[in-house]
Amino acid sequence: MKKTFVISLGGSLVIPNEIDIKFLRGFKSVILKQVRRGNKFILIVGGGKVCRKYQTALAKISKVDAQALDWMGINSTWLNAKLVQLIFEKYAYSEIAKDPQKKIVFKEPILVGGGWKPGRSSDGAMVKYATAYKTSTIINLSNIAYVYDKDPRKFKDAKKQEKLSWNELLKITGRKWVPGKNVPFDPIATKFAQKNKLKVIVANGKDLKNLENLLNGQKFKGSTVG
C-alpha cells in the first residue's frame, strides 16, 4: 500500500558544522528508493546549529525579544529547506511550504517545508502538516538514536526510552518553548500531537540503513512516543 511519510529532518543532520554532503546524498538515495515504490514524503527541515549561531549573534549585537529570535530561527530553516528541496530536483514541489494552515496540493512525490511561526520549533509545523495530510505517524530524525530520560551528553547514567507516553516525554522536555531549545521534541508540538493522538518515532537520521528499515516497516532502532 502506498504511504505518505511525514519526516522532520533535523538541521543538525543537514549542517552539523558544515553542510554534510555525504549524508544528504545518502538521504536522497533512501527517499528516492521509496518514491519509486509510489510513496510520498513531506519533509520538514530544522535549523540546527546554524539556527542557534544566528540567534546567538543577533542577541549579542542587539536587544531583541524572543519573537525576533524565533523569526531568525525560522528563516534559517527555510534556507535549509530550500537546499533539500533543490537536491530532490524534479521530484520535489517547487516552493517551500511555510504555513501548514495553507494546504498545498502537490503532484510531485515530495513536499519540503521549514519552520512556521514564533513560539514553536519546526516540530510544531511538522505536527500541523501531519494532521493536514491525515498522517498518524511522524518520523523525527536527528543526531540522537533514542529519547533519553536526561541529556546523554551531560549525564553518563542517562537511560534510553524505547517506548513512552506523551506525558512522559513532557516530563523530559518541559512544557515551555524557548527559542533555540535543544530537546528531542518541541513541548508545544508534543501537546498538539498528544491532542490529535499522533505517534512519533525518534531515530538517528545518520543511520540510513536504520531509516530504510523504518520506512519498510521492519525492526528499527529508536523511540516510539504515543
Q: Ranges with pLDDT <50 over ≥5 residues?
A: none
Helix fraction bin: 40-55%
What percent of residues are in strands? 15-25%
Strand order of the largest sheet: 3-2-1-4-8-9-7
How would you name the oligomeric state of the polypeptide chains in this document? single chain
Number of strands: 9
The CATH architecture classification is 3-Layer(aba) Sandwich
Pathway: Pyrimidine metabolism; CTP biosynthesis via de novo pathway; UDP from UMP (UMPK route): step 1/1
Organism: Candidatus Doudnabacteria bacterium CG10_big_fil_rev_8_21_14_0_10_42_18
GO molecular function, one term: UMP kinase activity
Enzyme class: transferase
Task: Report what the structure shows.
This protein has 226 residues and is an alpha/beta fold. The protein has a single domain (4-225), classed as Acetylglutamate kinase-like (Carbamate kinase), CATH 3.40.1160. It has 8 helices and 9 strands. It has helices at residues 11-14, 21-35, 48-61, 66-87, 122-132, 166-173, 187-195, 208-215; strands spanning 4-9, 40-45, 110-113, 137-142, 147-148, 160-161, 163-164, 199-204, 223-225. The strands form 2 sheets. A 7-stranded mixed beta sheet has the order 3-2-1-4-8-9-7, sandwiched between helices. Helix 2 packs parallel to helix 8, helix 3 (48-61) packs antiparallel against helix 4 and helix 6 runs antiparallel to helix 7 (187-195). The longest helix is centred in the middle third of the chain and has 22 residues, at 66-87. The protein is globular. Residues 3-204 form the Aspartate/glutamate/uridylate kinase domain. Belongs to the UMP kinase family.
